[in-house]
Specification:
The protein is mainly alpha-helical. It folds into 2 domains: 70 residues; 74 residues, no CATH class. The chain is built from 7 helices and no strands. Helix 1 runs antiparallel to helix 2. The longest helix is centred in the first third of the chain and has 46 residues. 6% of the residues are buried.
């Protein structure tokens, strides 16, 4: 069937090319449309055949793989003595212990940016990156009180947001 379509495509293309002024004649426009439709059908069928051939190849390799698996030696697992070693689960993961990032959720972050940093996300990011360089809570608190709060009118009237922000920063150092 694919070969028949291929022959039709070639004959239509030859007919179009042999006609003088082939773009002006309405009959040739219909031939070009026919050529396009046949080309789509040809492409579809060739892709379908490729998939069928590929699935046949995988089925053949799956059969040989199945034979290999059934003939392979199955390993035996021997249970060794009871182990009294218990694994203790820690509240913090290894990533938490070594990461210097602050665990501030999206909603809190947006509230802090809007209320404490006057809707300036760049300032917020700058402050967070600077806070992550400090080694302990006292250094971070001093930095906030000396350099950050004066830039934002000491966060007057925003005590709840300030308290929540400081709790996140403090928790990062514990």
């Amino acid at each position: 069937m694919i070969r028949d379509i291929e022959k039709e495509i070639k004959s239509i293309a030859k007919g179009i090319l042999e006609t003088e002024g082939f773009l002006e004649i309405k009959e040739n426009i219909e031939r070009i449309e026919s050529l396009y439709k046949k080309s789509l059908i040809y492409h579809f069928l060739s892709e379908k055949n490729k998939k069928i051939e590929k699935s046949k190849k995988t089925e053949a390799s799956d059969d040989s793989l199945g034979d290999k698996i059934t003939s392979a030696k199955i390993p035996e697992f021997i249970k060794k003595g009871n182990s009294d070693n218990k694994v203790f689960k820690s509240k913090k993961t290894i990533n938490d212990l070594f990461s210097k990032d602050f665990n501030i959720g999206l909603n809190d972050r947006l509230v802090f940016i809007k209320n404490l940093f006057d809707s300036n996300e760049e300032d917020y990011q700058r402050v967070i990156s600077q806070l992550s360089t400090f080694q302990n809570w006292e250094e971070a608190e001093s930095f906030i009180n000396k350099f950050i709060k004066p830039d934002y009118r000491y966060w007057k009237g925003k005590d709840a947001f300030e308290k929540r922000f400081l709790s996140f920063v403090k928790n990062n150092f514990q």
